[in-house]
Amino acid sequence: MTSVARLGAPLQRLYREFDWSARIERDAIQFPLRYPDPADRELVALLTACLAYGRVDLFAPWVDWVLTRMGSSPHRFILGFDPQKDGKRFEGFHYRFNRPRDLAAFCLASQRLLLQHGSLRACFLSGYSPTDQDVGPALERFARSYLTQDLSAVFPRGRLSRGYRHLFPLPSTGGPCKRLHLFLRWMVRREPPDFGLWREVSPAKLLIPVDTHVENMSRAIGLTRLKSRTWRMALEITRRLRRLDPEDPVKYDFALCHKRMSGDCRDRRHPIVCAPCGLRGVCRHWKGRR
């Protein structure tokens, strides 16, 4: 793999010079950004992150659809949510694995957790310890808190739907948990475009959200050699990034993801597209070439 020392300067330059504001409308973060109230923002961030699988142009219209039906304050809507009455608002929702009852279950579980803890922040912190090596153990408890609620009002047979379980993957199953890591990045990191609402959690504890774009970029510049997108890959990439910035290792996520998403990286050698790329000197596709 590429030495960390060689990666430092080009990655720092990419992070410093990347115009994240020009890509906001092509990123899931556009939805929580609409809500200045932290209570609304963290709920919208979680809902958006849970549904952020597939291409942005596919899931974004459905996220917008759901938020429209929640009204001006999703936090207020969820606190007053009645599965029998308000669940009907989501009739017609159909995005890949998810159906209307999955949204109703999300609202009901969120309502219960808000009544118990007061906020999603407090819910997460109830399972978080600053002595943990990373956010993995707390994220496991947070996801389980959504999966262990009594949702019989939505699922009368007591069996959670596949779609609802898909919203809350567990770290213990070995998957990358990209969407939940994305949610934590938004909540914890202090610098734009992220919100820094959860100050009790150190950005140093975060793990990078590994989607197909970050996976390919990371393999291209030598952050990982692993073949499968797993929790182990997220750990490996973050571990190497932590050697570049121990206090904020996932700060590179947005730029790495959008560099490939925008077409500036083709995951192969391309003389025209690659010409202005500052990562070319550490890219495996250009290894040994001028």
Quick take:
The chain is mainly α. The protein is 48% helix and 0% strand. It has one domain (4-286).
Overview of this protein structure:
With 290 residues, this protein is mainly α. It has one domain (4-286). The chain has helices spanning 4-17, 38-51, 56-70, 74-79, 83-86, 100-117, 120-125, 136-147, 162-167, 178-188, 212-220, 231-244, 253-261. The chain is built from 13 helices and no strands. The mean pLDDT is 95. Helix 2 (38-51) packs across helix 3 (56-70).
Protein traits:
0% strand; 48% helix; 13 helices; 290 residues; mainly alpha
Helix content: 40-55%
* pLDDT < 50 stretches: none
Number of helices: 13
How many strands appear in the DSSP assignment? 0
The H/E string reads HHHHHHHHHHHHH
Structural class: mainly alpha
Shape: globular
Amount of beta strand: under 5%
Average pLDDT figure: 95
Number of domains: 1
* Radius of gyration using CA atoms only: 20 Å
Describe the sheet with the most strands: none
N-to-C span: 19 Å
Give the helix/strand layout.
Blueprint: H1 4-17, H2 38-51, H3 56-70, H4 74-79, H5 83-86, H6 100-117, H7 120-125, H8 136-147, H9 162-167, H10 178-188, H11 212-220, H12 231-244, H13 253-261
Helix pairs in contact: 1-12, 2-3, 2-10, 11-13
